[in-house]
Amino acid sequence: MQPVFPSPQTLDHAFAGCSPFLSRSSGSGSPSKRRSPWLARHELYPAWSAVDDAKNKVAKLSDAAMAEVEKATSKASGSSGKIELYSPQFYAACTFGGVLACGLTHTAVTPLDLVKCRRQVDSKMYKGNFEAWGKIARAEGLRGVYTGWSPTLWGYSVQGGFKYGGYEFFKKFYGDLVGEENFHKYKTAVYLAGSASAELIADVGLCPFEAVKVRMQTTIPPFAKTTFGGINHIIEKEGFGGLYKGLYPLWGRQIPYTMMKFASFETAVEMIYSYLPGQKANYGKGAQTAVSFTGGYIAGILCAIVSHPADVMVSKLNATRQPGEAFGAATSRIYKDIGFGGLWNGLPVRIVMIGTLTGLQWMIYDYFKIFMGFPTTGGAPPPEEKIVGKLPGQ
């Protein structure tokens, strides 16, 4: 009968050299004379851990990735090192950063914007976002969920460029007016004035595309298939002024929105850094962009609340204003139809949309500034100098 378990001699032969104790066949402590040719020489292999090995590999990959990022950033910084702060080239670079920040993010949230606009025009059209997307997808396909993405991309790219580039210009302009000594005293007023001035110009570029976007999103089926087809349709039917009939309410929506967006962002970032240990310069690129996103999200929530009534009115005016109807008369008629409560239709959706949107915009914009070698926006104020008095006779 064959034994079920291996004998001690078989085990000893199989695991010779693996035990921390002396082999039985070694006798008084001398190493075993018989050695299997298939056994590994453990003295050549130190203790090994799969976890440590994985950590080392990840660390090497991370170091290689960071080296590539640093190489690309230093290359951009080398070229931007020739760009002086507050020079025309600096403002041009910030304008391009604004194009990326606003154009990409607004286009990404087009499905949210579509439902918001339709519910603002007719609050009974959909009960919620998911029901709305389901109905639109069944009726028009996935493309229908992104109705209006083209005028959104064009319009908010133009607006973002003028807004961010203009803000950098006007912030420096008004800061120079109050003087360096008074800047920290009146900084909130400088932020408000700079952002308002930039948005006043940016909305002139946005307005035609916003008119096409709103009409495209609130007419079923959409009145035009392409952005410039929609612009031509409006001009042929209403003249060039038809593209700008929503400019005043757009200013009413966007200027308070942008003032809150920039001033509250600067304040939020300053507060975040004031609570963090050390100075802003002590933190790396990832940490600074994370602070930018957090400050931007806080600012976005405040922006959504402040500008929402005007946002509803813009949607209503672009969708229902009759040709030749005066702005005041149209606004009065719409308000009588929807009342004060109607001005807040779609607010929860807009808070989520604008909060995420604004956070991502500031993160993209500030990361672009880091990539170009520029300092990020906002930060803790410099510490106040302590004046030490002298005792009499000293």
Automatic annotation (TrEMBL):
Solcar repeats lie at residues 89-173, 186-271, 287-371. The keyword Translocase does not apply. Keywords: Membrane, Mitochondrion, Mitochondrion inner membrane, Repeat, Transmembrane, Transmembrane helix, Transport. It is a multi-pass membrane protein. It comes from the Eukaryota. One of its GO terms (cellular component) is mitochondrial inner membrane. GO terms for molecular function: phosphate transmembrane transporter activity. The keyword Mitochondrion applies. GO terms for biological process: copper ion transmembrane transport; mitochondrial phosphate ion transmembrane transport. It is found in: Mitochondrion inner membrane. Gene3D superfamilies: Mitochondrial carrier domain. It holds the Pfam family Mito_carr. SUPFAM superfamilies: Mitochondrial carrier. Belongs to the mitochondrial carrier (TC 2.A.29) family. Transport of phosphate groups from the cytosol to the mitochondrial matrix. This is Mitochondrial phosphate carrier protein 2. It comes from Lophiostoma macrostomum CBS 122681. The lineage of its organism: Eukaryota, Fungi, Dikarya, Ascomycota, Pezizomycotina.
